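We treat protein structure as text, and this decision shapes the records that our systems exchange. The tokens are whole numbers drawn from a learned vocabulary of local backbone shapes. Below, we set out a record of this kind in full and without editing:
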Amino acid sequence: MLFEITILDTNGRPLLRDAFLMESITTLMDFTSEVLKPLSQSTEKKAFELFIRCEKGRHVFHRFDSLDGVILFKNALYEHLIELNETPNRNIESTIDFILSNKP
């Protein structure tokens, strides 16, 4: 599923817009709510904002006091995406090796 991440500065101007693929909305929600706890949730009126949405609507919204908090959140998400994308390849490679080594 295709998702869009948007980061806005304290004046509401976009700092980053990017797209990424993830298996499902459930996978995204599990990761952001259980695995990835933002370091700072801002209650300030002017704060850095991070949105993640897909064609079905907005699914994640966080406010941060500092740009560092936003970057840490984004980097952790991207690292998780890389891990998710690498795992199937390793499994496929292992399966191919297993099949080749067990050929009659």
Notes: The two ends are 40 Å apart (CA to CA). Strands lie at 2-8, 14-21, 48-54, 57-64.
